[in-house]
Amino acid sequence: MFDTMTLTKAVGAGCGALLAFLLVGWAGQGLYGTSVGGHGDDVAQAYVIETASSAPADEEPAEVVPFVDLVAAADAAAGQKVFGKCAACHKVDGTNATGPHLDGVVERAVASVEGFTYSEPMLAHAAAAPTWTLDELNSFITNPKGHVPGTKMTFAGLAKEQDRANLVAYLSSLQ
């Protein structure tokens, strides 16, 4: 039942199957580039994302200057230029536009301009922070929707602290 011809056929079938698997693997690497390519540790990245852990640990954090001091040293004329971003919705002549007028806003009660309809979130915020202090204005104009979620104000905010200080100095000069 088991002669040499049967054994030869079995060994030939095994070798043929092994050859078929090797050829399919070789074709797959050629078509899809599945090999590492022998680069070792020198792999070129398309871009590198810096993380906080890559910064040296021995650096001291920058000194934080109080916003009140920044406003005291700020340039109101530069703030008037920054106000150009606000002028689309706000006026400083005592009349309301899309937003309430901003003359006299510094140290004014939050949501207190007569004739302007405030959003419910702003009215609720007025109960928590009743006065537009320098720090309150700074926080609000940094990120209005983050500071008062649900506010009708669609402005994204001013990222630069010096721009905010100049703007608040300009608004303070309108008192």
| Overall residue-averaged pLDDT value | 88
- Helicity level, as a percent range? 40-55%
What is the general shape?
Answer: elongated
As for the CATH topology of the domain at 67-173, it is Cytochrome Bc1 Complex, Chain D, domain 2
Overall description:
The protein contains seven helices and no strands. With 175 residues, it is mainly α. It has a domain of 107 residues: Cytochrome Bc1 Complex, Chain D, domain 2 (Orthogonal Bundle), CATH 1.10.760.10. Helix 3 crosses helix 7 and helix 5 packs across helix 7. It starts with a helix and ends with a helix.
Task: Provide a concise account of the structure shown.
The protein has 175 residues and is an all-alpha fold. The chain has a domain at 67-173: Cytochrome c-like domain (Cytochrome Bc1 Complex, Chain D, domain 2), CATH 1.10.760. It has helices spanning 4-32, 67-72, 76-82, 120-128, 134-142, 144-147, 161-173.
Task: Please describe the topology of this protein.
Elements: H1 4-32, H2 67-72, H3 76-82, H4 120-128, H5 134-142, H6 144-147, H7 161-173
InterPro entries: Cyt_c-like_dom, Cyt_c-like_dom_sf, Cyt_c_1A/1B
Protein name: Cytochrome c
GO cellular component, one term: plasma membrane
List keywords for this structure.
175 residues, mainly alpha, Cytochrome Bc1 Complex, Chain D, domain 2, 0% strand, elongated
